[in-house]
Design a protein that fits this description.
The chain is of the alpha+beta class. It is 20% helix and 32% strand. It has three helices and eight strands; from the N terminus they run H-E-E-E-E-E-E-E-H-H-E. The strands form two sheets. The protein has a five-stranded antiparallel β-sheet, with helices on both faces. Bound molecules: nickel (II) ion (NI).
Amino acid sequence: MSLREIVTLPNPILRRKARPVTDFGPALQTLVDDMIETMRQAPGVGLAAPQVGVSERVIVVEYPEDEEREDAPKKLYVVVNPEIKEISRETEMGIEGCLSLPGLLGEVERALAVTVRGRTRRGQPIKIKAKGWMARIFQHEIDHIEGIVYTDRATKVWKPAPDEPALDNV
Ligand code: NI
């Protein structure tokens, strides 16, 4: 495993629609391992392949299973070719930061719950039901593989004050 450099705007790869993965071989396995390591080191709670300069439809998410409990174990998701299959009509506002847009925060309205379908890193079909922050992270990462960044959707974007609490980056 090795760390990869996180690319930031205005790198055009962040604005490109990423390619679907068709080969689940060693190159994908290395990419996934490197993305997990890079996300943890950043630190972040989610990362999409375009953020490490690879225009492929791969995301990783790592977040406590129970967001109400600080000591809840974290769960790692790797989703290849992810798609949002169901989306709640109910939405919620939340503040997001992104590893590819350092030094900014934004307020974004997102669906409260989503169902994501895709493949595991080994090519097996998976379905994930996420709500709250987990649903927000999936929506943010799936936007990345479409070339969308959160500031495109934000109602407000600002540079945080030095004393503003740090957020989980995605
Ligand atoms: Ni991001």
